[in-house]
């Protein structure tokens, strides 16, 4: 379902450009998958947040690893709920991921 | 305006390397490497944006830039100087002033709202543009900025960066294929040379940096980064 986005991210090196491509890919799927739009939008937002944070800032290999772990967890949470299929599970996953993304944002 | 002196190219590179070291814009860290935008692990990081806070240094650098561009390209070959968001903007402002040319800046992507502008400032159709950024790694961002400029009917013929990594041999060719000649003042090799001469950093650190500069992809693979460059 959504894990292909993480696969693509890894295949493209897990750097800023890979996250940029991931955000673009997630946004591109929204038109074809309106039933998954909220999840794809959140994934796109999380990937774009990484781009905004590190595009012209130093990023250590360790920090990149932690970011990737966190991003993978967001996607896994959504994937698990979508596999379960219930509307309640999906809503709960969306709220959980949105809360975690918000908690990582340094505003 | 430009001071109309043309220092020797090697002197420019050495002086700029010394300036960057003097203001601590150069960082070497092999034990906790950095990740480039491509995913490449690297023991080196440079922050050319620091230059904006040093008026004497930035002024000399802009004189060097004008001399390199006028000498390499000519005095009447440009109609405008465009800065790439974000770090390219101040350097484009100073350089356009030195060269007596109009300035624009280019966003990384269109604003997405209102008039959806990607380029700010007036740019005439057919204008020959010098694109300015603080540094060049693999040239990817310059190609994107040049594409945005070409949509206006203007053309980026040359691009200037204060610093060029000079670790990917095909970068100048990639830029040439996109219609741009690359100009710069200093590279990692100039920094390395000054570091050795001034005995800055430990011998181990310098050896690690040299190992990276000679084989960046292999060094990356051995330090948690990508083992092949993504296809662009």
UniProtKB/TrEMBL annotation, chain B:
* Pathways per UniProt: Pyrimidine metabolism; UMP biosynthesis via de novo pathway; UMP from orotate: step 1/2
Record-annotated Phosphoribosyltransferase domain positions: 60-156
InterPro entries in the record: OPRT (IPR023031), PRTase-like (IPR029057), PRTase_dom (IPR000836)
Name the enzyme's class: transferase
Q: Cofactor(s) for this protein?
A: Mg(2+)
Q: What is its EC number?
A: 2.4.2.10
Under the heading Gene3D superfamilies, the entry gives: 3.40.50.2020
A GO molecular function for this record?
orotate phosphoribosyltransferase activity
What reaction is this protein's catalytic activity? orotidine 5'-phosphate + diphosphate = orotate + 5-phospho-alpha-D-ribose 1-diphosphate
Keyword annotations of the record: Glycosyltransferase, Magnesium, Pyrimidine biosynthesis, Transferase
Residues in a coiled coil are none
**Which residues are 5-phospho-alpha-D-ribose 1-diphosphate-binding?**
107-108, 111, 133-141
Q: Which positions in this protein are listed as binding orotate?
A: 137
The record's NCBIfam families line, in alphabetical order, gives: PRK00455.1-3
What role does it play?
Catalyzes the transfer of a ribosyl phosphate group from 5-phosphoribose 1-diphosphate to orotate, leading to the formation of orotidine monophosphate (OMP).
User: Partners and quaternary state?
Assistant: Homodimer.
**Family (UniProt):** Belongs to the purine/pyrimidine phosphoribosyltransferase family. PyrE subfamily.
**Name recorded for this polypeptide:** Orotate phosphoribosyltransferase
Q: What is the lineage of its organism?
A: Bacteria, Pseudomonadati, Pseudomonadota, Alphaproteobacteria, Hyphomicrobiales
């Amino acid at each position: 379902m959504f894990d292909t986005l993480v696969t693509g991210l890894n295949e493209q090196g897990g750097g800023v450009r890979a996250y940029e491509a991931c955000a673009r890919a997630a946004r591109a799927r929204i038109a074809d998958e309106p039933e998954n739009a909220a999840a794809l939008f959140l994934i796109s937002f999380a990937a774009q947040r990484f781009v905004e944070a590190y595009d012209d800032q130093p990023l250590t290999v360790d920090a990149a690893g932690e970011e990737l772990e966190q991003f993978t967890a967001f996607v896994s949470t959504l994937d698990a709920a979508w596999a379960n299929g219930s509307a309640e599970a999906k809503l709960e996953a969306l709220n959980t991921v949105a809360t975690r993304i918000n908690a990582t944002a340094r505003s | 305006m430009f001071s109309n002196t043309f220092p020797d190219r090697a002197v420019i590179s050495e002086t700029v390397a010394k300036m960057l070291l003097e203001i601590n814009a150069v960082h070497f860290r092999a034990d906790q490497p950095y990740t480039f935008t491509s995913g490449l692990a690297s023991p080196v990081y440079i922050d050319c944006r620091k230059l904006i806070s040093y008026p004497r240094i930035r002024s000399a650098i802009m004189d060097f830039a004008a001399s390199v561009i006028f000498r390499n390209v000519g005095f009447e070959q440009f109609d405008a100087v465009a800065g790439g968001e974000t770090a390219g903007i101040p350097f484009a402002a100073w350089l356009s002033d030195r060269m007596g040319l109009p300035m624009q800046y280019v966003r990384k992507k269109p604003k997405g709202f209102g008039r959806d502008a990607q380029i700010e400032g007036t740019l005439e159709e057919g204008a020959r543009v010098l694109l300015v950024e603080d540094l060049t790694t693999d040239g990817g961002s310059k190609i994107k900025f040049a594409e945005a400029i070409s949509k206006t009917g203007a053309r980026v013929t040359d691009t200037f960066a204060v610093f060029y990594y000079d670790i990917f041999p095909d970068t100048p060719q990639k830029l040439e294929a996109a219609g741009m000649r690359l100009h710069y003042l200093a590279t990692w090799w100039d920094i390395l040379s000054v570091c050795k001469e001034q005995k800055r950093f430990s011998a181990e650190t310098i050896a690690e940096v040299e190992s990276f500069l000679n084989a960046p992809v292999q060094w990356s693979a051995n330090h948690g980064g990508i083992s092949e460059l993504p296809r662009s």
